[in-house]
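In the previous chapter we treated chains in isolation. Here, by contrast, the input contains three separate entities that must be folded as one system, with a combined length of 278 residues.
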Amino acid sequence: MPELPEVETVCRGLAPFLEGHRFVRVEQRRKNLRFPFPKGFVKRLQGRQVERIHRRAKYILTYLDDSTVLIIHLGMSGRMTITAPGNTAPEPGKHDHVVFETEAGAVIMYNDVRRFGLMTLEQEDKLDQHPLLKDIGPEPLGNQFSDSYLSAVLKGRKTSIKAALLDQKVVAGVGNIYACEALYRAGISPRRTADSVAGKRAERLVPAVRNVLEEAIAKGGSTLRDYVQTDGELGYFQHEFAVYGRENEPCPDCDCGKSVQRIVQSGRSTFYCAKRQR
DNA sequence: CGGCCAACCTGTGCGC
DNA sequence: TGCGCACAGGTTGGCC
């Protein structure tokens, strides 16, 4: 699930337990996720203090006091679980792959059934050049993501606009759900060619992407308090989607009885309303 | 380079 | 109840 809003929510949930706190125990419970853990992973983390947590695209960047950065990606099924200081942490289960304990007594577990996630370490001054990060496009909530940028970057691209939105080089952090939802809001067909999204369409798509992500973050934020108190699990949230997962249902703004269709584009499900989206 | 597809891995839900 | 298949929110690497 984790797209930009979920990763942002996870970062915000982790921050109070990690920023300014020191890892006193790190347990790596298997040798790899998507990639092998780097050499000396546990040793390099133990005793380090976290300075700040930051999100870039779908990556969680944890800046440490020795100028290294712990890079975390949640993949498809990665979650973080927090046990606040003073409470008893559960025993790690089959899919709890990494356990962090802070000096204050918080226990954070990384859980990932499918293991498409990753953790690695990089020197802070080399972070921009890291292979995983160097080609990522602008943050959709930042100023660089504008209709002129979008028109320019999509120029000449014959793939679908849906596939282009999923390309992290075009824009950072948009995944399958929010690509569908943003296109719905913008009234743009996911089948449309990417380079046909310029001018007025780009002017509609940019705020559509921004707004849907901002709303999802706001919702994550509003459920976060309850989330941490109940079971401490961070990562999966119930959102109301207009089209995603709603095949054969009427879309919210449809007055014509037509319903949401599911198609497959480059191997991923796309949901859209053929009447509203052209 | 652009674009498509398989692969990575586990779990779940559905039809038969 | 069991089996096989489709599918799941991400990303990469290989191929044409």
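The mean pLDDT of chain A is 91. Chain A has two domains: 4-129, 147-223+241-272. Compare these points with the single-chain example from earlier in the chapter.
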